[in-house]
Design goal:
Number of helices: 5
Distance between the termini: 44 Å
Number of domains: 1
Radius of gyration: 19 Å
Order of helices and strands: HHHHH
Strand content: under 5%
Length: 148
């Protein structure tokens, strides 16, 4: 029986080489986070009254403010995702911290009873998604090559 072993093809001219392969998961997690944040920001801005009704808050102004805040966050995360290894290493912990802050704020607002019915489920679902981004980004960040 013949056995074949394959290795990823990398050009000797590829200056990023193994570092690029090791940053792929982190870059993807950051890009998905940025896309999700941008889409949610736009949706919250455009449908603040509807979301306020779904969440049971009765405060579309706060919903708009959150949507507005998500847009620069999304742009910043997207910018990090296309950066070099130094930028990824330096900036990713702050993104993870922001995601953790979102999850903590979600729990606090749930405990304070800010939402009704479907709003509770929506906030929990979004917190789980954001926590998954934080976890994936942390794992990807830990896989980055050490600084020289």
């Amino acid at each position: 029986m013949t056995s074949f072993t394959t290795t990823p093809a990398t050009s000797s001219n590829d200056s990023r080489g193994d570092a690029s392969d090791r940053s792929r998961m982190l870059r993807m997690a950051l890009r998905v986070n940025a896309g999700n944040s941008a889409l949610c920001g736009i949706a919250l801005l455009a449908g603040a009254t509807t979301f306020a009704d779904w969440l049971g808050t009765g405060h579309p102004g706060w919903i708009r403010l959150v949507g507005l805040g998500l847009l620069p966050f999304a742009a910043w995360v997207a910018w990090i995702s296309i950066g070099d290894a130094a930028r990824l290493r330096r900036e990713t912990p702050a993104v993870i911290g922001g995601d953790i802050a979102w999850v903590v704020a979600s729990v606090v607002t749930l405990v304070l009873g800010w939402y009704d019915g479907a709003g509770i489920a929506l906030v929990i679902a979004m917190a789980v998604v954001v926590e998954a981004f934080a976890t994936a980004q942390f794992i990807g960040w830990r896989r980055l090559p050490a600084r020289h």
